[in-house]
Design goal:
It contains nine helices and eleven strands. The chain is of the alpha/beta class and 271 residues long. The strands form three sheets. The chain has a seven-stranded mixed beta sheet. The chain has a two-stranded antiparallel ribbon with strand order 5-11. A two-stranded antiparallel sheet has the order 7-8. The radius of gyration is 18 Å and the shape is globular.
Length: 271
């Protein structure tokens, strides 16, 4: 059986993350306090100084450089976020009056879902009246996504352009894939991301909401990179609110295990 490690990235310590299934590994990003039993970005080879621009991508880099040497090519590596967790299915509600909790529908029966695919991505956003380039330009008010194509080799530039001209986005920089594909992804995205960052910096684009432009560009690239793999599936995710993340409450009970909470997920995109 192939091993699986899903790293849950977070900028802060949330006690609820300690209560996730054991194959979900907490990864603390940035310089805040984290318990010693967490994986911590600043311990090991890292690009911590770029976290404010790259977001969770600095966690990807840390895993690439510090965690992959002892893994087999077919072992699975994945990522989720402190507020966004993988679920077992793609359905909005199986039963809108379900007694089940969020925890009971986390990606626990993972082997049956993942054993036949090369990659899992988040269920996509499908835009009805625009393509991915237009959407990006509307949100970020610049042409950097189009410019970023120049920083790729000819094959990736052609294929990424085709992806961006479509209307299907696999969002959030969340995926689960085999080690060999993850390594290939990292070897491609980080040199590209460095060029994107340098261009943004020189052109004074890293301001306000757009300070994380490299991470937003990476979201588009990650969508393209993994969706091109032939053996591919999607899953939904739960978005945790402040109640679930509350560390004081999680001192006494696991907020994810409260009955009836299954009806509030997964997040549905409507565009």
């Amino acid at each position: 059986m192939n091993k699986i490690k899903i790293y849950c990235t977070s900028l802060k310590y949330y006690r609820v993350i300690d209560k996730l299934p054991p194959y979900i590994i907490p990864l603390g990003l940035g310089n805040n306090y984290f318990p010693n039993y967490w994986k911590i970005e600043k311990k090991g080879k890292n690009i911590l100084s770029f976290n404010k621009y790259y977001g969770e991508l600095t966690g990807f880099y840390w895993v690439w450089k510090n965690q992959t040497n002892n893994m087999e090519d077919e072992d699975l590596i994945g990522f989720c976020h402190y507020r966004k967790l993988w679920m077992n299915n793609n359905n909005r509600f199986k039963n809108k009056f379900s007694f089940k909790s969020i925890y009971s529908d986390l990606l626990i029966d993972r082997n049956s879902i993942l054993k036949k695919v090369d990659v899992v991505q988040v269920k996509p956003i499908i835009f009805k009246k625009k393509n991915l380039i237009k959407d990006f330009e509307e949100v970020h008010k610049n042409k950097i996504l189009y410019k970023s194509l120049d920083f790729l080799n000819s094959d990736d530039k052609k294929n990424f352009t085709m992806h961006l001209q479509g209307n299907v986005l696999y969002p959030l920089n969340m995926f689960i894939t085999k080690k060999k594909f993850f390594i290939n992804y990292c070897e491609t995205i980080f040199p590209w991301l460095e060029n994107c960052y340098n261009y943004c910096s020189v052109n004074n684009l890293l301001n306000g909401y757009n300070v994380r432009l490299p991470a937003f560009l990476a979201e588009r690239f990650t969508s393209y990179w993994f969706s091109r793999l032939s053996s591919h599936t999607t899953l939904n995710y739960a978005r945790l609110g402040n109640f679930f993340l509350n560390s004081k409450l999680n001192n006494y009970f696991n907020t994810l295990k409260i009955p009836f909470t299954s009806i509030i997920y997964p997040t549905i995109h409507r565009y």
